[in-house]
From TrEMBL:
PANTHER family: OLIGOPEPTIDE TRANSPORT SYSTEM PERMEASE PROTEIN APPC, PEPTIDE ABC TRANSPORTER PERMEASE PROTEIN. GO terms for biological process: transmembrane transport. This is ABC transporter permease subunit. It comes from the Bacteria. The chain crosses the membrane at residues 39-60, 106-127, 139-159, 165-183, 222-247, 267-286. It is a multi-pass membrane protein. Coiled coil: none annotated. GO terms for cellular component: plasma membrane.
C-alpha cells in the first residue's frame, strides 16, 4: 500500500511529521486544513454522530427500542418515527441507534485484533527476515488465499453465533493478513534507512532499534489502513449479522435489522433500506477520513 497525497485543497499538504514539533497551534492548523474540505467535514460529523450513538444512544433516541406498539404496525417514516416502525410497532430509528452499540464495538474489536496481530507479525517478518520471514509470510499467504468473509464465517461457526464478540474476533482474524503485509513492507523499507543503520553501528540493542526507530517510522501507512479496516469490519459485522450470526433478536443490531426487513421490501421498504443506508454512510465516512489522513505520520522520528 503506497502512501499518497492527502485529500486537501490543491497545493496544500500536511507538513512532514518529523520536520517540526507538534504544537497545539500546529494541530489546530492541520484540523483547519482538513475542514476546508466539505466532504471530509461531513464525514467527520457523521463519524462523530455514530460514536455518540454507540456510547450514549439515549441522547439521540431516548425511547425504549424494544417497546412494542401493535397499533403502530409497519407505519411509514414520519416526524414521530423518522425511520418508521417495524412489524411489532417498534420505532426503527431507536432500534438503529441502539444497535450501534452492538455493531461498532464488534468492529472496533475486529480492528484492534487485525491491527495488533498484523503489526506484530509484519514487524517480526520484516526485521528478523530469514526463516521467520518465510514462515510468517507463508501463513499470511494462506490467510489471503481464503476470502475474508468465508474465513470469518468458518471462525464464527466454531466460536458460536450468539455474541457479537465472537463475530468481532472472527472478522479481526480475517483482517490480520492485510495488516501484516503492509507492516512487513514498511519495516523492510525503514530498516534500510540511514538512521537505522546508524543506530545499529552505534551499538544500540536490537530491541531499542526496533521500538525506538523501526516501529514508529513504519506505522504511518498502518494507521491509515486502520481506518479502512474499521470500515471493512463494520461491513463484515453487519454482513454476519444479516446472515444470523452475532446478536440475536430482539436485540437490535445493524445486520439483523436489515435482515428483518427483507420480507417486507415491497410493502415496507424502510425496514431494510434505512438501516442499510446508515451502514453504507458509516463505511463511506470511515473511508473518506482514511483518505484524508493518508500520508500523515510517515517521516522519521
Amino acid at each position: 500500500m503506497s502512501v499518497t497525497d492527502v485529500a486537501l485543497p490543491a497545493g496544500e499538504r500536511f507538513p512532514e511529521p518529523g520536520s517540526a514539533p507538534r504544537t497545539a497551534g500546529g494541530l489546530l492548523r492541520s484540523l483547519a486544513h482538513l475542514l476546508r474540505d466539505p466532504g471530509l467535514a461531513l464525514a467527520l460529523l457523521w463519524v462523530g454522530l455514530v460514536v455518540v450513538a454507540a456510547v450514549a444512544p439515549a441522547l439521540l433516541a431516548p425511547g425504549d427500542p424494544l417497546a412494542v406498539d401493535t397499533a403502530a404496525h409497519l407505519h411509514a417514516p414520519s416526524p414521530g418515527h423518522p425511520f418508521g416502525t417495524d412489524r411489532l410497532g417498534r420505532d426503527l430509528f431507536a432500534e438503529t441507534v441502539h444497535g450501534t452499540g452492538r455493531t461498532l464495538p464488534a468492529a472496533a474489536l475486529a480492528t484492534a485484533i487485525g491491527l495488533g496481530a498484523g503489526t506484530v507479525l509484519g514487524l517480526l517478518a520484516g526485521f528478523l527476515r530469514g526463516a521467520a520471514d518465510l514462515v510468517i509470510m507463508r501463513l499470511v499467504d494462506v490467510l489471503l488465499a481464503i476470502p475474508g468473509l468465508l474465513l470469518a464465517l468458518m471462525l464464527v461457526a466454531v466460536l458460536g453465533k450468539g455474541d457479537t464478540v465472537d463475530v468481532g474476533i472472527a472478522i479481526g482474524v480475517a483482517a490480520v493478513a492485510s495488516t501484516a503485509r503492509v507492516m512487513r513492507a514498511e519495516v523492510l523499507r525503514v530498516s534500510e534507512s540511514g538512521f537505522v543503520e546508524a543506530a545499529r553501528t552505534g551499538g544500540a540493542r536490537w530491541t531499542r532499534v526496533v521500538l525506538r526507530h523501526v516501529l514508529p517510522n513504519s506505522m504511518g501507512p498502518v494507521w491509515v489502513l486502520t481506518l479502512l479496516l474499521f470500515g471493512e469490519a463494520i461491513l463484515g459485522v453487519t454482513t454476519l449479522g444479516f446472515l444470523g450470526f452475532g446478536a440475536q433478536p430482539p436485540t437490535p443490531e445493524w445486520g439483523s435489522l436489515v435482515s428483518s426487513g427483507r420480507d417486507f421490501l415491497g410493502s415496507a421498504w424502510w425496514l431494510s433500506i434505512l438501516p442499510g443506508t446508515v451502514v453504507a454512510l458509516t463505511v463511506l465516512a470511515a473511508n473518506r477520513v482514511s483518505r484524508a489522513f493518508d500520508g500523515e505520520g510517515t517521516g522519521p522520528r
